[in-house]
Design goal:
The complex is a heterodimer. By secondary structure, chain A is of the alpha/beta class. Chain A is 37% helix and 20% strand. Chain A has helices spanning 6-20, 44-48, 60-72, 88-98, 101-104, 135-138, 151-163, 213-227, 244-254, 269-281, 305-308, 312-323, and strands at 2-4, 24-28, 53-55, 76-80, 114-119, 144-146, 168-173, 182-184, 197-200, 205-209, 231-235, 238-240, 257-264, 290-294. In chain A, helix 8 crosses helix 12 (312-323) and helix 9 (244-254) packs across helix 10 (269-281). Chain B is α/β, with parallel strands linked by helices. Chain B is built from 13 helices and seven strands. In chain B, helix 1 packs antiparallel against helix 10, helix 1 (33-58) crosses helix 11 and helix 2 (72-79) packs parallel to helix 8. Chain B starts with 32 loop residues before the first helix and ends with a helix. Classes of the chains: A alpha/beta, B alpha/beta. Chain A binds chain B through residues 29-30, 33-34, 37, 55, 57-62, 85-86, 88-89, 124-128, 265-266, 295-298, 300-305, 307-308, 313-314, 317, and chain B through 63-64, 111-116, 130, 132-134, 164-165, 167-170, 195-198, 202-204, 264-265, 269-270, 326-327, 329, 331-333, 336, 343-344, 347-348, 351, 354, 357-358.
Chain lengths: 325, 362
């Protein structure tokens, strides 16, 4: 065990898989020599060579389109998109090919790729560096979407993602990259894709979140405790496929749901969770299943971003409304 | 000029040597001494704002900022040719061209200081905001060019991008569209040799960037991007070419980003001090100053005075900028649509209720 932040634990997962499997590659813009703008791939080129860990020319479509081709030769590319806000030139390849190739060829070609990208806000960045657009991937049939919230989960989930034969969108909450350290095993371990985690048990309300918002959700659970509200906190860890069972059981127990997500509200993951509550726990509900999501606006530039990103306080406000409903 | 410096020949247009001597009289631009002095002052002004902004960032008075240091001739040598009716379609490292259009340091600071008002440019016309997604603006330039041509409006579109930008599909689409349409666009690649950490030779296998013009049936030329005269002269020729109705031109200005990619970047990870030293000696401002001093149009004394004057002006403007009114909740919502949809009205009201609840608890 070593005390690691998320940058280190992701680096460790990549290092282990590059060491173990010669078919694994890691590449992206500035992801080789420099080790990525967040240093997530630092030293991997030195250790595993320029043929397997490399810088690509500046083209997101090139990165993902070529990853599709690599998969067809049996390689397992881990492609980095520098910021999720720059993924759109690659969106065509993700949606039109990576997500569909297995189905299109009736299972002949595996799209065994991981697309890593830092996402989310709160780092006082300029335009296109703060969005949480996981819905755009979760909505697409054929993709799986994984979002860790702790260094430990990040490592276990990334190893599982690299070993998955399906294409995985692996979104890294950049605000948490260096926000916390945790004891993480040095060796290999896995966390199942598609399994949520009950972070804290409680009886009054189920709060479901993931990624960067887990930090505020945890803080809110502590604030709620002081107010006398018992929160059951669930970290989804995988957005798609959704762990319906864990979430439904919890809502049936507490009778209340609050989802806390960072991206825009409309057609978001929160809408999906509210639907789940209706479909799976309707007769147990004590209050309307509710989503706390981002405004349906552009994420403001840093001077205005405090309005956009939920605080623990804001979550507590919503919890209180539902418990007192 | 475009024949003499045809990109297949691998020759770069240079007029002013690093020592400040005119070494190529044949292609000297038509420009008055007064204008050259104006351009020189703009280069000094741009550098002053740039260096000060980096220092404000270091002091925590500005967020992440992308410096322009070292690219003054490449930005201003090309951009200084813009007339009122022309259009500037920038990437994010064209501050000198912005100033030529009437954009102010306050606009620049608002933007990099994290306020959308910094993309509005109340004192400039036909000037697009910074475009962050690499190379995307190149196609907008083609569209503006088409719009001008179709509506028989005057003006030439000046669009900027970097060496890395030529790898994006949008580079291809932009040049292809503009060439098919014979749109009035000058494509200006400020080749500063690095796309963050990636050197040009790893970015492309082509010998230079100007040569890419051939595939679009348009003239292309590589110029010394640290030579004001070469940049201005090629731009002047490109504008003539367009005015003759012959369609777009690609200019590659070979320069060097002396600063970091952004203030979050550390160039020592990917380039040597020795290399930086070589480019320091090819500095564009130093070069033009040497020329002006040799011509007795300028003196070291003038230079010291000017720099000091600009430093004081910029400092005073920054202090004013720091008094900018605070960001309001309404600023998040009010500009997204012409009329705010009900969903947004509700979201704003919900947030206000939360604020009231928070207030009641404190």
């Amino acid at each position: 065990m070593t005390l690691m932040n998320m940058v280190q634990s992701i680096n460790s997962a990549l290092d282990i898989k590059l060491e173990e499997d010669p078919k694994v590659l890691s590449f992206g813009e500035d992801a080789g020599l420099e080790g990525g703008v967040f240093r997530v791939t630092e030293n991997l080129q030195k250790k595993h060579g320029e043929e397997r860990v490399f810088d690509t020319p500046l083209s997101e479509a090139g990165i993902i389109g070529s990853a599709v081709g690599m998969c067809m030769t049996g390689l397992r590319p881990v492609a980095e998109i520098q910021f999720s806000g720059f993924v759109y030139p690659a969106y065509d390849h993700i949606i039109s090919h990576a997500a569909r190739m297995h189905n299109r060829t009736r299972g002949r070609y595996d799209m065994s790729m991981v697309i890593r990208m830092p996402y989310g806000g709160g780092i006082k960045a300029i335009e296109h560096h703060s969005e949480s657009m996981e819905t755009l991937f979760a909505h697409v049939p054929g993709l799986k979407v994984v979002i860790p919230s702790t260094p430990y989960d990040a490592k276990g989930l990334l190893i599982s993602s690299i070993e998955s034969d399906d294409p995985i969108i692996y979104m890294e909450p950049k605000r948490l990259y260096r926000a916390m350290k945790q004891e993480v095993p040095d060796g290999k371990f896995q966390i199942d894709i598609g399994k949520a985690k009950i972070v804290q048990e409680g009886s009054d309300i189920t709060v479901v979140s993931y990624g960067a918002m887990m930090k505020e959700a945890r803080e809110a659970a502590i604030l709620a405790q002081k107010e006398g509200y018992s929160v059951e906190l669930i970290d989804l860890r995988t957005i798609y496929p959704l762990d319906r069972k864990t979430v439904a059981e919890s809502i049936r127990k507490t009778g209340r749901l609050l989802s806390v997500t960072e991206g825009p509200s409309f057609s978001g993951i929160g809408s999906e969770l509210v639907t789940l509550a209706n479909e799976e726990a309707f007769l147990s509900l004590e209050a309307p299943p509710t989503r706390l999501a981002g405004f349906d606006t552009i994420v403001p530039l840093p001077k205005g971003e405090h309005f956009y990103f939920h605080t623990a306080d804001r979550i507590l406000y919503e919890v209180e409304k539902l418990v007192k409903y | 000029m475009f024949t003499k410096y045809h990109p297949t020949k691998g020759e770069m247009l240079q007029i002013l040597s690093p020592e400040g001597k005119i070494i190529n009289t044949k292609f000297q631009p038509e420009i008055s001494t007064e204008k050259v002095l104006q351009a020189y002052k703009l280069m000094v002004y741009t550098r002053t704002v740039d260096l000060k902004t980096v220092s404000y960032q270091r002091q925590g008075r500005m967020y992440t900022y992308a410096p322009n240091f070292g690219q003054e001739a490449s930005m201003i040598g090309t951009g200084f040719h813009m007339n009122q009716e022309d259009w500037l379609v920038p990437s994010y490292r064209e501050m000198g061209a912005f100033f030529h259009r009437g954009v102010t340091p306050t606009d620049i600071w608002l933007y990099w200081g994290g306020h959308e008002d910094g993309a509005k440019f109340p004192k400039a016309t036909n000037t697009l905001p910074i475009s962050v997604p690499i190379a995307s603006q190149i196609i907008h330039a083609a569209g503006i060019g088409y719009g001008l041509k179709l509506q028989k409006q005057k003006g030439i579109v000046y669009t900027y991008f970097g060496d890395g930008g030529t790898s994006e599909g949008d580079f291809h689409a932009g040049l292809n569209f503009a060439s098919v349409w014979k749109a009035p666009v000058i494509f200006i690649c400020q080749n500063n040799q690095y796309a963050i950490s990636l050197r040009q030779e790893k970015q492309m296998a082509s010998s230079n960037i100007a040569i890419k013009s051939l595939a679009y049936g348009m003239p292309g030329i590589q110029v010394d991007g640290n030579d004001f005269f070469a940049c201005y002269s090629a731009t002047q020729k490109a504008a003539q070419h367009i005015e003759e109705g012959k369609g777009p031109v690609l200019i590659e200005a070979l320069t060097y980003r002396r600063g970091a990619h952004t203030t979050a970047d550390d160039p020592s990870r990917y380039r040597s001090k020795e290399e930086e030293k070589i480019w320091e000696e090819k500095d564009p401002i130093l070069r033009l100053k040497r020329y002006l001093v040799a011509q007795k149009l300028w003196s070291e004394e003038d230079d010291t005075k000017l720099t000091q004057q600009y430093e004081e002006e910029v400092e005073a403007e920054f202090l004013e900028y720091e008094k900018y009114p605070p960001y309001e909740l309404n600023d998040v919502f009010q500009y997204l649509y012409n009329t705010m949809p009900d969903d947004l009205v509700k979201q704003k009201q919900e947030y206000e209720k939360y604020l009231a609840w928070k207030e009641s608890r404190s």
